[in-house]
Fold these 2 entries.
Entry 1:
Amino acid sequence: MNNASPFHNISPSDDLVTVTFDGIEYILPDGANLAASLLEAGLRYFRNTPVSGAPRGPFCMMGACYDCLVEIDGETRQACMTEVTSGLKIERAHRDKGLEND
Amino acid sequence: MTEVDLVIVGAGPAGMSAAVTAAEIGLSVLLLDEQPAAGGQIYRNVAKADETRGDILGKDYTYGLELVTAMRSASITHVTDATVWKIGEDGTVAYSVNGKASLVQGRKVILATGALERPVPIPGWTLPGVMTAGAAQILLKQSGLVAERAVICGSGPLIYLIAQQMIRAGKPPLAIIETQTKSDLLNAMRHLPHALRGWRYLMKGAKLLSEIKRAGVMRVTGAENLEIEGDTEVRAIAFTHRGQTTRIQCNLVLLHQGVVPNTQATRSLRLEHAWSSAQRCFHPITNEWGLSSLETVYVAGDGAGIGGAKAAEQAGAISALHVAFALGFITKADRDKRAAPILRLQSAELALRPFLDRAYPPSDQVLKPADDTVICRCEEVTAGDIRAYARLGCTGPNQAKAFGRSGMGPCQGRYCGLTVTELLSQETGTTPDAVGSYHIRPPLKPITLGELATLEQTLTDETKGLI
Amino acid sequence: MEADYAIIGGSIVGLSIAWGLLKRGRRVLVLDGDDGSFRASRGNFGLVWVQGKGLKQPAYARWTQKSAAAWADFSAELGESTGYNLALQQAGGYDFYFDEESLEQRVAEFETLKKELGGDYPFEVLRHNELKREEPNIGPRVAGAILHHQDGHLNPLRLLKSLADDVRRMGGTVKCGVPVKRISKRDLFEIEAEDGTIYAAPKFVLSAGLGAMDLGPQLGFSAPIRPQRGQVLITEKLPKMMNRPSGIIRQVDEGSVQIGDSKEEVGLDDRVTLETASAIAARAVAVYPDLAKAKLVRSWGALRIMSPDGFPIYQESSTTPGAFLVTCHSGITLAAAHARYLPAWLDGSDQAPNLEVFSEQRFAIS
Ligand SMILES: Cc1cc2nc3c(=O)[nH]c(=O)nc-3n(C[C@H](O)[C@H](O)[C@H](O)COP(=O)(O)OP(=O)(O)OC[C@H]3O[C@@H](n4cnc5c(N)ncnc54)[C@H](O)[C@@H]3O)c2cc1C
Ligand code: FES
């Protein structure tokens, strides 16, 4: 996986917490926007489409496109409309579809 | 159920100024927005942005602080993280905060839900690493992130602004690939005399362009056949220019083809809408006060037609004045006296629009996507599918939706609706107005069944109370 | 264009009939309304449903069973020529009960009907634990269910698309976006569309759903139908969580869970209301508690086309022979019968099923 982030943070925060994404730990700024923080951490692809399993990542960052969907506690949520909190267990939405395609 | 004089949906410039105006007059105001802070898309996070961010984003951004501050001081209930998912004709509004649904009864409702970026269906636009230019700006405003090794593509003044901000942040885009042509600009020139009333913006545009030039960013206009490459994420973008194909390797592609009113809420209320051929989009029909075809509902700001942040702010105030008058808080004379100066400013503010609409039209490629281009991101329906449904007798988007599921996914047609209307209009040879648009029904945003189910008790209890 | 039949209304009922007529070698012209017309065919629940139908009219139960039995073959034929998979599944369906008493009451009614049908009514009662074995995700509040083995479901939108496709493929002419406003009879039936165009045919079938309320009386039909609203909710796509459909919840082949549906007498109003939507959501969550976390992505209201007794109307006009009114509520269930058996009746062939009980006369006040 390419974890070199395509984003640069001009005002990084040092109030950090740990979350997991598909079982892997990430240290993210507390209270920050989840989609932005995951992008900054080098993650690009947040979900698979339930139709073809194609990979998708945040597109609009304003809650309109639903391409940033992730699964938290069994509920699909828009990462761009969610705040980072300590201990979040995040999974790719429809990852089962992605696996079928691998 | 809580009752208030005015429910405002959307805390951008239109919503904030409506709230301030109404509250000053003495109306009880509930302002709902799904974001964690006031500001809308343009002034996103402005109250929390630090100085570095403020410097990069410029004065037009930090201006938003004034609005946010004014709002704080007034007696306004602003509920943040509130997703509005159903609006009733009678002014009841259902919204959820953190998975809990609530209902409020407004005597009047102002919808200030703003704009969306126009869909940009080109090959590869669904790949991770492709975002809208607006998304890049939100990342910068809200999270301080600047895209590195990004290419900006499309058409519209927003492209220059985001490029300038990236330059100031020390990460200039690799290239700016624009789709509008010289002849678009020539066509726009005839609106120039009128546009000169908006000279401040013209100056600003010129300044942006010279800053981009000084930074040495490659810039192409009249680009065609854009194609984003990559299998699981963006690797490059290719385009043709004067018959030559160019390929640029990059990390991110930022797309933009202008903005269009977000009509989800207004459609769900079945308000009357019309097609704007100048802006190539639908907008709800409103009078000069922003009053829609329904007596209880006003639409202010970009959601009623694209006019920009300042015009939106003015529209919010104007609608609020009319609400105050309609509810008997102020007299007609008072309303008109207060509105007159705002209306004058607004007309100057809108002077540049016709010029911009002409100079930066959406590209042919996005209005007539190739057959194999995905146009519905959620259900992965292609332009060719829609054309095939037209041959199967679909005269409008709703039958096309039934045939091919476009518009049925979680985005509920936000990023395919206009494309489907355009395609069917081309295929059937009728106007977009006659083709129409998707029926939009609640929930305006997905909510859990659990949330919806919990309302049952509330509703039955209240109905019982009434009997 | 020469046609033997003009068919007014090009949704499920009209297209099923057109398909069947084409199979009999007839030339058809289908005229359909515009994108915004009320279309039950777009808003329905996708059930091919036998249980509970015709409790007081065994002839309707039999007609429904005949259609259900014809479905497998009909769907295979449509699938073969169009390439669309209708996702037809006829492995039985449930009717859920939260209390024993109403379950028992229903069982008694079913037993009576079963006798009248000569025993052909294969249903069984599953108590909570038995049901749990079939449907592990069922919630504790469900007391039991009736499992009827003749029930099933399909993807109704793909059915609509396949019919639209196949009718054209077989040479039928289908005109969309031409709402009909007047019909008159000279030598032929003359059918005038809103845009002024006149279409003519020696016979015609009025299958315009709720549109028949206005058009029917022009040809001497009483067309005593009314709209009845059903609200339906649909979730995001979920991993498979139910094995069989029920009258109120089913998981569609694409993964979404569809939840229905109310029965409301509100006239021509197809809006969604919070009261009803939240009530049907609460009921669904009581049946399948896991649904509480599922995201509701869409909802809609659709209008059923109801006759006073809920049964179909098949009627040839007594004043202008050659004009037929066909209207029904369960157009998906009955599509197979409409495609396979109704055309013979329209043609006046000896093989025609006897549909007398479904004539309008039954509503005449004597
Ligand atoms: C909520 C709900 C759930 C349902 N669930 C099921 C189910 O599970 N199983 C089942 O078997 N059935 C079900 N049904 C019923 C089924 O959907 C209908 O029986 C069927 O769709 C009726 O088809 P139709 O063609 O007669 O009418 P519609 O689908 O309503 O179509 C009428 C057509 O006539 C056209 N039209 C109208 N006026 C004119 C005019 N003046 N000129 C030209 N064209 C005109 C319209 O444009 C339209 O295309 C359900 C219905 C509802 C509302
Ligand atoms: S990125 Fe579009 S909804 Fe989150």
Note: Chain B is about 40% helix and 20% strand.
Entry 2:
Amino acid sequence: MRIEEHPILDFKRGREIYFYYNGKKIKAYEGETIAAALYAAGIKTLSKSLRLHRPRGFFCGIGKCSSCLMKVDGIPNVRTCITMVREGMVVEDNDMELPDKEYEGCELRKKAVDVVVVGGGPAGMNAAIEASKYARTLLIDENPRLGGQLIKQTHKFFGSRRQRAGTRGIEIAKELEREVMERGVEVLLNTSVIGYYKRSHHFLAAADKINRIVYEIEAKKIIFATGAQENMLVFEGNDLPGVYGAGGVQTLMNVYGVKPGNVGLIIGAGNVGLILAYQLLQAGVGVACIVEAMPKIGGYFVHAAKIRRCGIPIYTRHSIKRAYGDGKVEGAIIGELDENWNFVEGSEKDIKCDFICLAVGLTPSIRLIAQTGAEISFINEAGGWVALHNEYMETTKEGIYVAGDLANIEEASTAMIEGKIAGLHAAHSIKPIDDFERKIKEYMEELEIFRQGYFGERPKKAKEKILEGYYEKMGERRSS
Amino acid sequence: MKRWEREGVAEIEDIRLPTKEQLQKGVAIIECIQEIPCNPCVDACPFNAISMENINALPIVDFEKCVGCGKCIEVCPGLAIFVVKAKGEKATVMLPYEFIPLPKEGQMVKAINREGKEICEAVVKKVRKGKTPVVTIELPAEYAMEARHIKVKAEE
Ligand SMILES: Cc1cc2nc3c(=O)[nH]c(=O)nc-3n(C[C@H](O)[C@H](O)[C@H](O)COP(=O)(O)OP(=O)(O)OC[C@H]3O[C@@H](n4cnc5c(N)ncnc54)[C@H](O)[C@@H]3O)c2cc1C
Ligand code: SF4
Ligand code: SF4
């Protein structure tokens, strides 16, 4: 299951180590997650559903979905997809213990800074870089490395040269990480922010489960850049191990060099689905086809053209009816949709595949930002519930900012600019910055240019509604 | 609705083509036919042969300025640029190739069209390893506007 040779990536595997899974000795490499190591060893069922005990495999691969929870060295509910494997580790099935046991006996550390950035993707890294030019900045991410969604993007990015277009996502992540380090931003990895509360200042609670540390962090400003999570789709058999989020498959394959299977079926012909198909082919994994419910391909034509050249069919106006298999995916039935979104009788096709990737959109990860009391609103164009914010990315709660996919499902390029805007404004409102006006104007213009074309229509609409909502709310507040 | 919107396959009418004379010297054919926020091809051309009104507009090649060097092929994230040279009965196509194994110079490969179908045999003339490897193949001139990918046999 391990990829030995790849056209773009060079997998530098760490030292060979051993750990235990339900008493069995398993080989792994230092620097990979528990879930990746188990997968490479052919173990695809990581947990069981609570009531019916149905087998569950991993889904999101970025610590957001909880289908990979296991007991690690006695600690329950560990997200194995973002926890690094260690020599001699004892990994067992989770026995559904109460979560409060997770933090028993942890060391408490206190920190106080000017700006905290939660989430180290392109938005968060840029926010931290910008803020750190003027203020004491702390950047926190629950993954073992910085980069967010970028660490698995082996394709060259679109956009303008200023946004590093033509450079591969993985390279952009490395460049930004270097800048974060050079600027002296304090970084906490493997650390999840788990709560927000307010006293005189803003406070965050964060935990590094494996090293048994709980942090209490006091900050003047907080920038949330927690990204988004993959959407599920309702169909029979959608919980079989082997049904994955597209991002999860990318992580497994492009970060840890483990093949998700032999032949995949992809649901969704947006950019994520199209790019994933191409990356699978590059890793030497087969793709049966892509199905897309809409009459048109949603992603860029150039991405679609790349995979069509490789002989992969795209079936528009089609969807998945059910996935089948005994304890794991062995195939799927797809069918054509009519104008009322019902399956056309007799149009069913049996697709033989051993995994299915869902690339049917993302939803902003608002759980934390919602705790701050910032006004949240459902905006379809933005991808669901999002925090209302102004042009400086500040929410209706003073000193609380959002940026990137959390603020509207968009692109890394725009996430980076939004991060800069949030970082700059947060620092400026602690202590005024001389050429703030000029700088912020520059960033805002860049954003505007990005959102001018056909593909910019949706995010533009989303941002209009978000701003409108923000000012409606703040106007109300001022008058009341 | 155009076929490319539904199927991801461009028709020859969708693409801006050079004249026969321009094709003889070899020029960049850009199959980037939908407005997307992207422009690295413009910056990459050492001869300023590619222009774009704004980042969301379509790239336009000035076939007179273009010398067919293929620098733009390497940076294009859409892998949408090909340099085609057709003179007499033979033609060469320079195309981006991001798979392994890379073919070797002199090796026979199958030329593939926009739908993924094999169309003819081709011989590899050159392999340039860069950000994205660029492979030059030679094939009968009638397939110059069809061949956009190759299939490389693992052995050899
Ligand atoms: C397949 C695919 C292809 C793409 N291609 C392109 C492209 O060509 N061009 C482009 O511009 N964009 C592209 N994108 C989009 C781009 O990757 C995203 O828009 C971008 O990564 C969003 O950045 P972000 O910083 O907002 O979030 P993310 O990158 O998702 O980062 C969020 C980070 O926050 C962390 N986090 C979340 N919650 C917590 C918590 N409670 N505590 C601590 N840390 C937390 C996460 O671990 C994560 O690292 C693509 C996306 C995908 C999936
Ligand atoms: S082939 Fe060379 S000269 Fe022609 S457009 Fe591309 S970079 Fe410019
Ligand atoms: S670099 Fe490629 S994808 Fe981008 S605009 Fe130019 S031709 Fe189109």
Note: Residues 83 and 170 of chain A are 20 Å apart (CA to CA).
